[in-house]
Every structure is written in C-alpha cells, then in structure tokens.
Amino acid sequence: MTPTTPASATSKTSFPPTWEASVDLHLNEVETPAALVDLDRVHANLAKVMGYLGEHGLSWRPHVKTHKSRAMAHLQVAAGADGLTVATPREAEVMAEVSPDLLLAHPPVHPKARRILGLPAAVRLKVALDSEEALAALSSAAAGTGREVGVLVEVDAGMGRVGVQTADQAVELARRVEDTPKLRFEGILFYPGHIRVPMEEQPDLLAGVTRRVEETLEALVRSGHPAGVVSGGSSPTLWQSHLVPGVTEIRAGTCIFHDRDMWTLGVCGLEEVAYSILATVVSTAVPHQAVVDAGSKALAKEEFRGGGGGYGILLDHPDVVVKSLSEEHGLLDLSGTDWRPQVGDRVRIVPNHVCVSVNLQDRLLALGPDGILAPIPLEGRGRLPAGSDPDQTSILFP
Hints:
Number of strands: 18
Structural class: alpha/beta
CATH architecture of the largest domain: Alpha-Beta Barrel
Number of helices: 10
CATH topology of the largest domain: TIM Barrel
Order of helices and strands: EEHEHEHEHEHEHEHEEHEEHEEEEHEE
C-alpha cells in the first residue's frame, strides 16, 4: 500500500510570492499544446514523500531531471529535501543557486569534469562514477582547484547499464579514491531501474538488489572503507525503498509530478498526477478517433512499457489512449469509449514519461486557483553553461 497524503497537504495553494508578478494568464487563453503543473497536487506529492521518508528514517535527494526548474527545486528543498541530484553540468550550475549540496549522478569525463569543478566553492559536491578513467578525469580537474570532491562508487544493482560488477571492484575503486588527492570516498550509489513492475511484485526483485548492496557494503567494511552514504531508490520502487537495508537516501524525482507509467504501476493515483499537456482537438474527420495538436514534440515519442500501448492517456478519460504520434498531431483512440469530443474541445494528456516531455517545453505553466497560470522557467534545460544564452545575431544574415 502506498502512504496516504496528510489532509493538510491537499488544501488550496496560492502561487509562491516570487511568482505573483508574472501571473497574467488564464487557462482559457493558453495557446496549445502547453505543459500544465497543478500546484496543489505538487504540494500534496511532496508532503506524501516526506511523510514516508520520515517514517523510515531516509533522506531525499530528488533528481531534478524531472522538472529542470529552480522553482520546483525550491519547493522540494522547502519540503525537506537534504540536497539535489543532477545529471548534467548545466543542471548543476542552475541548482547550485537552490541547494549547497549536489550529487552529479553521471560520470564526468573530459570537459565535463573541468566544468563541474567550476561550481561555486560553497557547493558540497559529490560525483558518482564507476571507472578509473572517470576517476582520473575528476582528479585532474580537481588538482587545479582548492576544493575537495566526494565520490560515490556506482554499483550495478541489476539494471546492467553502468556500475561496477563486483564487490571487489567497488573496494578497489574506493581505495583508488582514498589515495587520490582532493577526492574522498563517501559511499556507494545504485539505481534499481530494472524494476518496473506493480508494487506487489517488487519485494522479490528488491531482494536481489539487497544482496548486491549488502555484499558491497560488507566488503567495504572489511577493507576499512565503510560507506557513509548509500544512495539508491527509483520512482517505481519509491514506496518500497525501506526494503533495502543500509540505504541512507533516495533520489526519486518523478514523484513530484508522476506520469502514466507511475499510475499504471500503482505508485500513484490518477488524482495525484500533477503534470499534463493541455491540447486542443483539431479534427474528428476520421471515425473512432480524434486528433489533437500535441504530437511527439510535446509528449515525446517514448513507447509505453506497460500494457495498452500508446503515448499517453487523457487525465479526465483514462480509457482514451493517445494511440499514435507525428510531430504536431496526436491521435486519440475513441473505439473503446462513448465520449465524443468536438473540434475546439480541450483535453489534458498524461504522457508516458514526464521527464522527457518536460525537456521538450519552453516553459511550464503552474495552475493555481481559479484557472490562473504562472510561467515556470526551465533553467536546467540545454547543455550550454548557465547564463550563456547564445547570441541571437545570425552570422549569415547580420
């Protein structure tokens, strides 16, 4: 069973004071497609996560790749997050203004290592890596600075994407870290991303994760390199994070918004989904379908990993699936419903995967009381250094 949300967390929420000056748009006036964020649901989701973590003595270091936004990160920190997880140097540069405690959960090599060491000196930086090559790149970048960097050795807990493969490899890499000036071994990181089944089926699979984590932790203790930090968790396994002994923090990030995937796995109810794409019906000419103006450039063309196929569902009609996408068209399958929209009607689509949809937007729109909207900038999008927006002057046509 998922934790219940405290009743106080569901009360109507106004815009944060810093947004008030930019509130100038009503829902009915928005040109579609547009990404909407229900603030009341965001606050309720934050309260629910913190309630669960408090019950089990875990810390939260949410991954900001879900929202790419300082405003959303501020809400997470205000709710009780102890730090933030980032995947790119730009995310780190942006989020350094929100939290002084950042974890780069992606091995930095070549220029990325030098760039990440350029963060403000006040930032307590940790980096996850799984190779001597990445360690050497980080060491070289740190050598020219006056700062120390914490290192988490990434362990493959079963996903088969990255991470050392054995406990002995984790020990050896920890030793190399301790022998490297400017670097300090702080612990391990793992990601159970291969577990994407309903909650009631997760415990047996998490038992395998537990074995790998415990073997690594025991080997580190025997070698004299105990792990102070054990960073784990994922959004699909969020409410089962306590089943892996030794975990000190989780990095689940999707839970601020949720998506179709999380709903199908039972991680959230549809009433907890805080992110949707507002779209307009533009055609009903072909029988048993309707076409909306949100295509792959708004929803992302990521296949649904659960049953049912398609690229999203309607928030108010979850039996209606977005059955196919082209760049600017989304086709709604109406064959299994009596609901018949008209041209001009508006619908809200829950995408399969919220993180990739957010990354396609110019901004999000926070939905507040009475349909009033406020823009949410996405400062973490892109690859260029934060604050270095490209020159708009064309070199070909000055």
